[in-house]
């Protein structure tokens, strides 16, 4: 028997508090319950979660909208009983095959079931920079990976290019402005009046207040448009794109309850067929490599999470209700 075997047996017997989802519905249908801790796999680590964060994806998952997504999430009731993905915490035990981590290590990453006091994770977990709080680290995974992959991989941004971020004040947008600057781009941020100063502090070279100016009717042309807010038709968006530009679609308006934002994404993609510009829609994928890259950016001060509100684990329904309003600035964090 290895030295780690007792830890595996002990943690399997313990209890924890977790947010439990038994059906689709409003966030108020979620319940805080005491359940068994997850068993520790040989190739995984058990993390005592100190903080998590919620994203638009959790709101969709809890409410079960758009309906087509239930094909993957569960047609009648959700397959995943504990919502949440982003986490930061301390390693409590490690499996016998694990060599990268030790008990006591501070980590962050992404794993289903993050809205709980404990979780086990095999792959998408990395060490947390010492100069970053648990709350800051927990705000990073989903939003920052989406921004990073949208700009670097799908947008193929290069130093000196002009980048426009539409929806610069939300979770993805606040990271996108900072990451685009870190990658050497000239950044224009589009947001509402109350977020203009925030966008400037994030490093945007130019800020457009969409309540005062229609960015699609300006004279500027961009090499990359990262569209987080969505809602604008292809006929408007193409006016501000260079001939060889890329339009990366991240989000869109809720639209009808069947397709939700996917309806907008499909309309833009179909309308752009035959155009010289490339239109891309993607779903971000967690990788340890990208978590490490973001950790280095955090440590170097190249990105700084913007935390709008903090809630306790018991207040997750209220946190998701706030996310559902669409008015969150930066990230909404859950302290565990």
Automatic annotation (TrEMBL):
Its EC number is 1.1.1.1. InterPro entries: ADH-like_N (IPR013154), ER (IPR020843), GroES-like_sf (IPR011032), NAD(P)-bd_dom_sf (IPR036291), Quin_OxRdtase/zeta-crystal_CS (IPR002364), YIM1/Zinc_Alcohol_DH_Fams (IPR050700). One of its GO terms (molecular function) is alcohol dehydrogenase (NAD+) activity. Keywords: Oxidoreductase. Residues 25-334 form the Enoyl reductase (ER) domain. Gene3D superfamilies: Medium-chain alcohol dehydrogenases, catalytic domain, NAD(P)-binding Rossmann-like Domain. It is an enzyme of class 1 (oxidoreductase). It holds the Pfam family ADH_zinc_N_2. The keyword Cell membrane does not apply. The keyword Oxidoreductase applies. This is Alcohol dehydrogenase.
């Amino acid at each position: 028997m290895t030295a780690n075997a007792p830890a595996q047996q002990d943690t399997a017997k313990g209890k924890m508090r977790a947010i439990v989802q038994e059906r689709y519905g409003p966030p108020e249908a979620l319940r805080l319950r005491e359940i068994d801790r997850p068993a520790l796999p040989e190739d995984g680590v058990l993390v005592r979660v100190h903080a998590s964060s919620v994203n638009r994806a959790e709101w969709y998952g809890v409410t079960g909208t758009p309906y087509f997504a239930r094909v993957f999430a569960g047609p009648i009731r959700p397959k995943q009983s504990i919502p949440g993905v982003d986490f930061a915490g301390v390693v409590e035990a490690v499996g016998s095959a694990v060599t990268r981590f030790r008990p006591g290590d501070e980590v962050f990453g992404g794993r289903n079931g993050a809205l709980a006091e404990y979780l086990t994770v095999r792959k998408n977990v990395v060490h947390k920079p010492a100069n970053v709080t648990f709350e800051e680290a927990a705000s990073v995974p989903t939003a920052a990976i989406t921004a990073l992959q949208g700009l670097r991989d799908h947008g193929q941004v290069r130093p000196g290019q002009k980048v426009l971020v539409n929806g610069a004040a939300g979770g993805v947008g606040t990271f996108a402005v900072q990451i685009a600057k870190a990658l050497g781009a000239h950044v224009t941020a589009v947001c509402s009046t109350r977020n203009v100063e925030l966008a400037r502090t994030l490093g945007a070279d130019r800020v457009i207040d969409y309540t005062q100016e229609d960015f699609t009717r300006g004279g500027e042309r961009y090499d990359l448009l990262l569209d987080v807010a969505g809602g604008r038709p292809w006929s408007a968006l193409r006016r501000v794109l260079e001939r060889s530009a890329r339009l990366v679609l991240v989000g869109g308006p809720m639209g009808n309850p069947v397709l939700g934002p996917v309806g907008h994404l499909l309309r833009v993609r179909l309308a752009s067929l035959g155009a010289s510009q490339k239109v891309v829609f993607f779903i971000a994928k967690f990788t340890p490599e990208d978590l490490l890259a973001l950790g280095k950016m955090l440590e170097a001060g190249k990105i700084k999470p913007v935390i709008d509100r903090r809630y306790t684990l018991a207040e997750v329904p209220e946190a998701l209700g706030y996310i559902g309003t669409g008015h969150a600035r930066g990230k909404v964090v859950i302290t565990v």
